[in-house]
Amino acid sequence: MLPAPKILIIGQGIAGTVVSFMLSQQQIEHDVIDNSNPSSSSQIAAGIVHPITGRRLAIAPQYNVALHEAKLFYQEMSKQLGNTFFEQKIYSKYMPM
Ligand SMILES: Cc1cc2nc3c(=O)[nH]c(=O)nc-3n(C[C@H](O)[C@H](O)[C@H](O)COP(=O)(O)OP(=O)(O)OC[C@H]3O[C@@H](n4cnc5c(N)ncnc54)[C@H](O)[C@@H]3O)c2cc1C
């Protein structure tokens, strides 16, 4: 059997962090490098999850599904890393409990 290819994630914004966490959960070896740009999007973003998107300010399709998956993901991340990454502050019909 061929050895698994070495995985290198370039950039540790939210995307690189999520991919790295998911690989770690499956015990897939990988490295992450980041050039520490203090003004990258993930460093300066407000970090708000909301259902409104696009120029027409419409509810994003599949928003409930995406939010549900995001909550499960961040709950697992919090459990594994002992920190809080997601906090629901507003409850509405667009946001599943
Ligand atoms: C002002 C602002 C507010 C925002 N607010 C929200 C919000 O409230 N809610 C929301 O959902 N989204 C928000 N966004 C959008 C959100 O921040 C981005 O969609 C998201 O952070 C993108 O993440 P990313 O990991 O794809 O990219 P990035 O955050 O850009 O991460 C890429 C990383 O790769 C590094 N990198 C790049 N090139 C290299 C290289 N060659 N070698 C090594 N490292 C490299 C960078 O330094 C960076 O750390 C906001 C964006 C901005 C600018």
What does this structure look like?
This protein is of the alpha+beta class and 97 residues long. It folds into two domains: 45 residues, no CATH class; 52 residues, no CATH class. The protein has three helices and four strands, in the order βαβαββα. Strands 1-2 form a two-stranded parallel sheet. A two-stranded antiparallel sheet has the order 3-4. Strand 3 and strand 4 form a beta hairpin. The longest helix is centred in the last third of the chain and has 19 residues. The termini are far apart. Bound molecules: flavin-adenine dinucleotide. The site of flavin-adenine dinucleotide (FAD) has 19 residues, from helix 1 and helix 2. The site of flavin-adenine dinucleotide has 19 residues, from helix 1 and helix 2.
Short précis:
The chain is α+β, with helices and mostly antiparallel strands and 97 residues long. It folds into two domains: 1-45, no CATH class; 46-97, no CATH class.
Topology:
Elements: E1 7-10, H1 14-25, E2 30-33, H2 41-44, E3 52-53, E4 58-59, H3 63-81
This protein binds flavin-adenine dinucleotide.
Q: How large is the share of residues in beta strands?
A: 5-15%
Compute the number of structural domains: 2
From the spread of the alpha carbons, the general shape counts as globular
What share of residues is helical? 25-40%
